[in-house]
């Protein structure tokens, strides 16, 4: 498992100037065409939302009052705190902030090659063999391995399907512990 801290990830501005992205992982690492990608996005203002043809996306609100995503006559949804919102990346969406800047966990998978299930968890997470994924801590403390420092809010781990993560649980250490878990499953 690979550890990350959102605050130490490099932030890259969006081409349209509406926000910034901190990439957790793009798999395979270094490939031009990702199979799956996880990032933290800071959305600073209303405006167009980048389309990703052939990609399925899941956004989960981490901070702020949310963002309304619309494609007239096709799609109209608003993010809610810690509730994953899935949608096709092909849509030409507009983003409207609900009370100011917000931060989201963004999971993207190449349609037909992988699927992602994102959920809020409060108990142990044990990655399945051949699956990739990300666990992002929302609250409390979590343990990955004996001897490693606990994961705290804004930190987490990711793994690919070949990491040997299966059977290596990520376990809550405090009663208030909550995290987002993205389970990425290859198709075919």
UniProtKB/TrEMBL annotation:
Superkingdom per UniProt:
Bacteria
InterPro entries reported in the protein's UniProt record = RmlC-like_jellyroll, RmlC_Cupin_sf, Uncharacterised_HutD/Ves
Q: Which CDD domains match?
A: cupin_HutD_N (cd20293)
PANTHER family listed in its UniProt record: PROTEIN VES
- What is the protein name stated in its UniProt record? HutD family protein
Organism field: Streptomyces litmocidini
């Amino acid at each position: 498992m690979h550890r990350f801290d959102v605050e130490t990830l490099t932030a890259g501005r969006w081409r349209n100037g509406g926000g910034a992205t901190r990439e957790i992982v793009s798999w395979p690492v270094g490939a031009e065409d990702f199979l799956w990608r996880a990032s933290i996005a800071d959305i600073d203002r209303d405006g167009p939302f980048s389309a990703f043809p052939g990609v399925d996306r899941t956004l989960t609100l981490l901070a702020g009052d949310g963002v309304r995503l619309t494609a007239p006559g096709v799609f109209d949804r608003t993010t809610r705190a810690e509730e994953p919102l899935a949608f096709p990346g092909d849509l030409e969406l507009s983003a409207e902030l609900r009370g100011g800047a917000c931060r989201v966990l963004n999971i993207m998978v190449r349609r037909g090659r992988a699927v992602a299930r994102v959920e809020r968890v409060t108990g142990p997470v044990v990655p399945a063999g051949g699956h990739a994924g990300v666990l992002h801590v929302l609250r409390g403390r979590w343990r990955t391995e004996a001897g490693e420092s606990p994961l705290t809010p804004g930190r987490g781990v990711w793994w690919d399907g070949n990491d040997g993560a299966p059977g290596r649980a990520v376990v809550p250490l405090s009663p208030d512990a909550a995290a987002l878990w993205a389970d990425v499953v290859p198709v075919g």
